[in-house]
Design goal:
Elements: E1 3-8, E2 13-18, E3 24-30, H1 42-50, E4 59-65, E5 79-80, H2 85-90, E6 93-95, E7 102-106, E8 110-114, E9 117-121, H3 124-135, E10 140-144, E11 149-155, E12 158-165, H4 167-177, H5 205-217, H6 221-224, H7 227-233, H8 239-258, E13 265-269, H9 272-283, E14 288-292, H10 295-310
Parallel strand pairs: 1-4, 4-7, 5-8, 10-13, 13-14
Antiparallel strand pairs: 1-2, 2-3, 6-7, 8-9, 10-11, 11-12
């Protein structure tokens, strides 16, 4: 049956109608992320955006992202790691469709623990599995940069565990609301996107490299962040260069904490701007990068639908 693949994030909503072999037949997107949907209106928003794809024939919709959170359409409890497609398929949250032949399920997202502290992701797990399918990989490390970056360890095409870093959010706070912001140029308007962690500003690659290198050689962002102010005080870098420098500092802090091995390879999933930035930073750590974009989401949801077929998983009614 046709698949309606939906990525419903915090600030954005996008979907694709996929054909028999996972090819994209049609796409649409809007700014109606979960925070922009009035209470009780998720079904109406879904219908307004994707209703024209629903026919009289059986249709399946798989929704990943924050639509399954406590603030979303219907809460889909997290699936614990280690997990692969079969674990996700077994814990889908089925909800009412537009018609008896229209089946809608929300992907649950994943959880893991480190030293008794939980960590979670919603939506990134589908991107990871989609990238694995596209690249033909079974064992790798996947990096998903953004507001809350994820480092994911994959073995046998199953996610063993992951770690989250508030890299994009910390950058935004320092860039806009700290004392450092007074030495930086005015902020450009930010486009609505779930994966972008920073506004598209002029890149100074040399300054960015300096920030990454300084972070890698230091012990704490609490110390290195102050150098953005002192470099401005002594006129060592221009305000524009300091934006790139600060970006390098926070990304470099993430790499310092994660400590990727020189000579290793990672997959980086995200927007062209962010994947290029991370590829540059990882190159300073002598790490090879495979970059992949939004196609990982559609491929992940399509591959999950194929797994449901091989599992012989029947379409279910809401709990």
């Amino acid at each position: 049956m046709p698949l309606i693949a939906v990525d419903w994030g915090t600030s954005a909503l996008r979907g694709a109608l996929l054909g028999e072999h996972g090819e994209v037949l049609d796409q649409c997107a809007s700014g109606q992320g979960i925070l922009n949907v009035p209470p009780g209106q998720f079904a109406a928003v879904f219908r307004a955006n994707f209703g024209h794809w629903i026919s009289e024939n059986p249709t399946l919709t798989l929704i990943s992202g924050m639509a399954g959170s406590q603030q979303g359409w219907v809460e889909a409890p997290y699936c614990a790691c280690p997990a692969g497609f079969e674990e996700l398929g077994a814990k889908l949250k089925w909800i009412n469709g537009e018609a008896p032949q229209h089946h809608i399920a929300i992907v649950p997202g994943l959880s893991c623990e480190h030293s008794g502290i939980p960590d979670v992701m919603r939506g990134e797990e589908i991107q990871v599995f989609g990238a694995l399918q596209l690249l033909g990989l079974r064992d790798t490390t996947v990096v998903l940069p953004g507001t809350h970056s994820k480092w994911v360890t994959v073995r046998g095409q199953r996610i063993l565990h992951f770690r989250s870093y508030m890299t994009g959010e910390i950058f935004a706070l320092l860039r806009q609301h700290s004392l450092l912001a007074r030495t930086l140029p005015p902020l450009l308007p930010t486009p609505t996107s779930r994966t972008e962690s920073a506004p598209p500003e002029t890149e100074d690659t040399a300054a960015f490299d300096d920030g990454v290198t300084h972070a890698l050689r230091s012990h704490s962002l609490l110390n290195t962040a102050f150098s953005t102010r002192t470099l401005a005080l002594f006129g060592r870098k221009s305000p524009t260069a300091l934006v790139s420098y600060l970006s390098g500092l926070v990304i470099g802090e993430e790499l310092r904490a994660q400590h990727p091995e020189p000579g290793s390879e990672v997959v980086v999933i995200g927007s062209p701007t962010l994947t290029q930035r991370y590829a540059r930073a990882l190159a300073l750590c002598q790490v090879k990068v495979h970059r992949i974009g939004a196609e990982s989401t559609w491929n992940g949801l399509w591959s999950l639908s194929k797994t449901l077929q091989t599992m012989g998983k029947p379409m279910q009614t809401p709990d």
